[in-house]
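hey so i finally got around to running the thing on that chain from the lab meeting. sorry it took forever, my laptop kept dying and i had to restart like 3 times. anyway pasting the input first so we r on the same page abt which one it is
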Amino acid sequence: KVLFVGICGSDIETYRGIRRPEFVSFPGRLGHEVSGRVDKVGAQVHTLRPGQKVSCRYVWGAFAEYIVCKPFNVKVVPDHFPDEEISSLEVLPGILHAAELAQIGAHTRVLITGQGVSGLVMTQVIGLFSPRELVVTDLNPHKLALARRYGATHTYQIPSADTPTMAVAGKDFPEGFDVVIPCLLEGAGMVDALDAVAFGGRIVMYGCIGPCELPFDFFKLHKKRADILSTEPKRDIDMRRFWQEGLQLVQDGLVNTVEMVTHRFPLERVAEAFALRDNKEDMESIHVLIDCR
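ok and heres what got predicted. didnt touch it at all, straight out
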């Protein structure tokens, strides 16, 4: 039984019609950031039981009252865990994987571009790795204010989506950044990440998996001796481990997911919720939840 489901950036890309066909199932089934409760179990399911609260991963079509999935796709959470906060647990395995790939040390300068839901969670997680500098960028001053509370040492408001990061932050960081983690939708963010990464640095590609219409300079990548690393755990056992670790961080109060919930819509108003998230002029919404109870 779906309780809440968040509208992810990937849902918006599909809604806008800019996702390539190979990334979209037909018919399109949107919704995967799920807060739910087990309603029924199959005859061969011996541990999960009706009534348990669960987070879900690798499920689709969750803008609905009910979904069907395998035990692998659910993570039981404590009964006292707030329903609305369960939805954001879905992003944590990929974020924790990205943080480990970054190999952050005490002298690492980290740049995170984009402070949507995943970007704000990423900022909190990366802060726990104690980098020397944690720099974040976004168009929205409200999101940057949250990022400062979450551990960012420097925040920069980007005046427009096509403004290069180094045009704003380059004066303070002329050599660039040891680690760049784009948390943006469009693939063009990788061009900006390449400009911002320092010699010998690494780009940890959490976001920017959408289409890229700009040329990517592979010779610049070679000259900088930089690495590009893709994220999302490759082994199922790692995904489960990161999921558990993410749940523990939220339970322990080290990652705040409730402050970024700005809007709640009932399921019958899901079209209105998508219109809000699709509005590029909107500066208020961060995490928009659909109430499916």
